[in-house]
Design brief:
Layout (H helix, E strand, L loop, with lengths): L2 E25 L2 E24 L18 E3 L2 E7 L8 E8 L3 E14 L4 E16 L3 E6 L6 E4 L8 E3 L22 E4 L3 E2 L1 E20 L2 E17 L3 E2 L1 E2 L1 H4 L12 E2 L17 E2 L2 H11 E2 L12 E17 L3 E21 L16 E24 L2 E12 L3 H5 L2 E3 L15 E5 L7 E15 L2 E27 L9 E28 L3 E14 L17 E10 L3 E10 L2 E6 L2 E5 L2 E13 L2 E8 L5 E5 L6 E6 L3 E8 L2
Parallel strand pairs: 25-28
Antiparallel strand pairs: 1-2, 2-5, 2-6, 3-4, 4-9, 5-8, 6-7, 7-13, 8-11, 9-10, 12-15, 13-14, 14-20, 16-19, 17-18, 20-21, 21-22, 22-23, 23-26, 24-25, 26-27, 27-28, 28-29, 29-30, 30-31, 31-34, 32-33, 33-36, 34-35, 35-38, 36-37
Amino acid sequence: PALIGSAFFQQKRQRNGGMLDVEFQPSDSLTIDATGFLSKLQATNVNDNYLMWLQNGFVHDGNGQAPNPGYIVQNNTLVSATFAPVAGKPYGVYDQISRPNEVAQTNFGNLDIDWRATDKLKFYAQGGVSTAHGKTPFQDVLETNPGVGNGAAYSLNGTTTAPNWNLGNTNGTTPNPIDPTTGLATPVAFGWIFGDQNMDVLDKEWWTRLDGTYSFNAGPFKDLEFGVRYSEHQRHLWNVIGQGPNFGALGPNPSQTYPTGYGNYPSNYGNGLGSGFPTQIWTWSPDQLSAYDSAYANRDPVTRADWTADYGLQEKDPSAYLEATFGGDRWAGNVGVRYAQTKEDIINNVGVSAQTPGAITSSAFGPYIQVPTDHTYNNVLPTANLKLNLTPSLIARFAAGETMTRADYSALAGSIQLGAPPPPCTPPTPCIIGTGSGSNPDLKPITSWNYDAGIEWYFAPRSLLDFDVFYMDLKNYVAFGTVRKSFLTFSNQGPPQGYPADYDLTVPVNATGRVGGFEANYIQAIGEHFGIETNYTYADGKQTSLLTISGDDRLVGTSKNTFNIMGYYENAHFSARIAYNYRSEFFSGLDRNTAFSQNGLGTLAASLVWIVNDNFSVTVDGMNLNNPTLKYFALNDSQPRAFYKNGAQYYLTLRFKM
């Protein structure tokens, strides 16, 4: 492990908003509806993380401090080790981060028009615009180094409980621990001031659409549906400031500038996660961190411009569809096709050498250039559905079709950071390949051919038993891997005009995959008011292409086993439901180029609804009532990644209408 920490995250969320909907009906055949919505979520939060700093020159690269005899290795992982004290060596790092003005704002306006032109022909038109901002104006951060010269020890417990660890005899309950050698209070060492400022992620989309339906009702040919849609989306984040320490203001002894006074983690911190890890850690308040960074942080917008966080993207998406509906006495179905185009204009910041023409060299984060990428993709997506009424209570369903979804904007438009430039390649001399990481602007839209077949038996009123099998053939699924790209490289190793150099980039990549499985549902009414609902899904998902990291062929987010069971009671004025949901372990993706997964998890929820009258109702909801522990691991159970306790959540909702 590189870092082991006792993290304590606190957040207060307050959402205020409103919606106005006005509907007009100038005639029986025309309805016009206008909707406006706005919402502002304030999410002030503090994240304190007291960590053992194992990547700070311990066993990495064979040049660090080796563990004492008696260490334990399992599955190529150092799961238990003790490190003897070395004078002046920091064995811990403590990050305190306050985000006092975290805000998410959303608003949209929408106009809907329904028009029945004739008895057989009707149209639906819509237009709107949506704007959202995710803002982090400030991060007040102070990093310190506890445990200097005190050694360290840890023992991983797999995914059973959180690891046991310590920083030797360091007293983590105070920022001024007593030095066991001198008996004097010694402030923790100054580490750094970091954290991006001035972050404002903009998402803006405007759209317009026109849909029509013509009803034939001539024999088996029922309806013809058609439509067009056009949308434009912008996502960008510019002018991020990556603060650092202002050493001129800090002076030669930064510990003399520390805030006065401190608090501690709550006494019940870590309950339910095990024992043997640091608790009751000292903390500075958000106000103390804000005052400290205001006085001692460097937030210059030019020299601290964090280009690695900046990005921009614009996407234009026209589409059109046509669908025909058929039906008879004991059957119904439809056949359709959709055309979807994706036009992307992406700007990636790419780290380069200072010799590169056009390089921006004023940032302390290194020189860079902005690289535009444009792509246009066209997809034709057919689909067909068929329903057969075998008996009045037995129905068979079949479906086949192709669907498309676009890659996440963050995977397309983030920065790209290149390692040391390789020298020019002169055959027959073997070429040296550079390395890099970041986003991938060349990701294609994800398509999937989907096949479903199922049978439903309505064996009693409000009761159902059904079984369904499915298969999905995924193309351009976004996985994690390495792609080779050539960049025009300028360095002291090459000609002044530059040379093309190959780099192996660790980035999101397009891959192929498949998911097959089945699902079963059972709904049973018990008497007039009671009942149960259960369902189970088995899904076997695999990545079928060879672009994998560490040989991992799992699909992100796919659990093999998922089931839900719910019991309910309901009458005209009252309903009560209790539900248990479970999903088995699944691959979560990459974290710092390492695969990580979430253990199987079951959650309990309940809901009570009281309908007082037609105009007023009261709802009480409880989620996460069993307060499960979320557990994450890396390549295997010997490599735990994180343990979280998030607590139960309760909601009281009052609804009133006139």
